[in-house]
Design brief:
352 residues; alpha/beta; five-stranded parallel sheet; 10 helices; binds threonylcarbamoyladenylate; binds magnesium ion
Length: 352
């Protein structure tokens, strides 16, 4: 049942407020709007309305037990969504990292629709660092619930063309803007416990959080690697970011990785099987006979993380059947990058 999707283009340096007011009116009328943020494009609706939020789940084909992030444009806007006033730690985190790619998990109030929090007693909130997103929330005068604007299971959209291909005909409006600056989703941080827990690595790194909370003040959830059968963040149990192709991550010393992948290309690629290699600028010249895409330099894994989703979609466009992906160092933004790669590969990892 295709909807009629209005597509508007906005320039974040010079926002056409009249156009954006139409988007805000759609949110107020309980419709759906795809909006740019600094992390990835989001699929937004009025976070205070069950009816509106259900449309997000419909458009994405998202399982109902995966809760949504609520986006606000001021700390005031969230006060009545919370069970208790902000404590010192929350205030410091907000002062330091908002607006920005940090989502905080709070105990929630009764005002949060059950569809938003998937029946949990907590709610995820962030303030996006993007002028169009902030202005849209301000004009709509309500918080906006927004998951990434991809069809459930697909790589998150970082470019307008990605959302058009996923969401045209499924939402009321798409706002086209520039490529997402961060290119990987926000860090999800649970601050309902004494020691804060990173439930999803993202645009704010562990080191950045430790600088504010102290080394002992924050840990990475041990479930993050997907081993566990009962994840704390419901989103972690689903296949995510997956390209159409099968994907395998190859981990080890650089030369062993290259040798393994090159031998796999030789034994796998033929007339009916097209092989992709996901690698770095430093290694790309070593591969022959495959579709080779680099995510950038290993010395700039922040840019690598930012390029990943677009590269995964490009492999789909090229019709690749199997992707061999070099593993990257799991520190700083490499942690978020490898987290998304492992999910894309369904945790298919080989150590060489
Ligand atoms: O950067 C982002 O966070 C983007 C942009 C659009 O803001 N949004 C995004 O939303 O990535 P989504 O729905 O794709 O991912 C939300 C994540 C999921 O892993 C979900 O399980 C987790 O946040 N989450 C939401 N509410 C939660 C809660 N109450 N407790 C634990 N995890 C929660
Ligand atoms: Mg998502």
């Amino acid at each position: 049942m295709a909807m009629n999707t209005e597509i508007i283009e906005l320039n974040e340096q010079n926002i056409d407020i009249e156009k954006l007011k139409r988007a805000a009116q759609i949110i107020r009328d309980l419709g759906t709007v795809v909006l740019p943020t600094e992390t990835v494009y989001g699929l937004g609706a009025n976070a205070l309305s069950s009816e509106a939020v259900l449309k997000i789940f419909m458009a994405k084909g998202r399982p109902a037990d995966n809760p949504l992030i609520v986006h606000v444009c001021s700390a005031d806007m969230m006060s009545n969504l919370l069970h208790e006033p902000l404590d010192m730690r929350a205030k410091i985190l907000i002062d330091t990292f908002w607006p920005g790619p940090l989502t905080l998990i709070f105990k929630r109030s009764e005002l949060v629709p059950l569809e938003v929090c998937a029946n949990l007693d907590t709610v995820a909130i962030r303030m996006p660092d993007h002028p169009i997103a902030l202005k849209l929330i301000e004009l709509a005068k309500v918080p906006i619930a927004a998951p990434s604007a991809n069809v459930s299971g697909k790589p998150s959209p970082t470019m307008a063309k990605h959302v058009i291909s996923d969401m045209d005909g499924r939402v009321d409006m798409i706002i086209e803007a520039d490529r997402s600056r961060i290119g990987v989703e926000s860090t999800v941080l649970d601050i309902t416990s004494e020691v804060a827990v990173i439930l999803r690595p993202g645009g704010i790194t562990l080191n950045q959080l430790q600088e504010v909370l102290g080394k002992e003040g924050v840990v990475i959830d041990e479930m993050i690697e997907g081993e566990a059968d009962k994840p704390r963040s419901p989103g972690m149990k689903y296949t995510h970011y997956a390209p159409n192709a099968t994907m395998q991550i190859v981990r080890g010393d650089r030369n062993d990785i290259i040798r393994y992948i090159q031998s796999k290309i030789q034994s796998t690629a033929n007339a009916s099987t097209s092989v992709g290699v996901l690698c770095s600028d430093e290694t790309k010249s070593h591969y022959r006979g495959a579709c080779v895409l680099s995510i950038g330099s290993v010395h700039r894994l922040d840019q690598g993380a930012s390029n990943l989703f677009a590269v995964l979609r490009e492999f789909d466009q090229m019709g690749v059947d199997i992707i061999f992906a070099e593993a990257f160092a799991e520190d700083e933004m490499g942690l978020a990058l490898m987290n998304r790669m492992k999910k894309a590969a369904g945790f298919n990892i080989v150590d060489v």
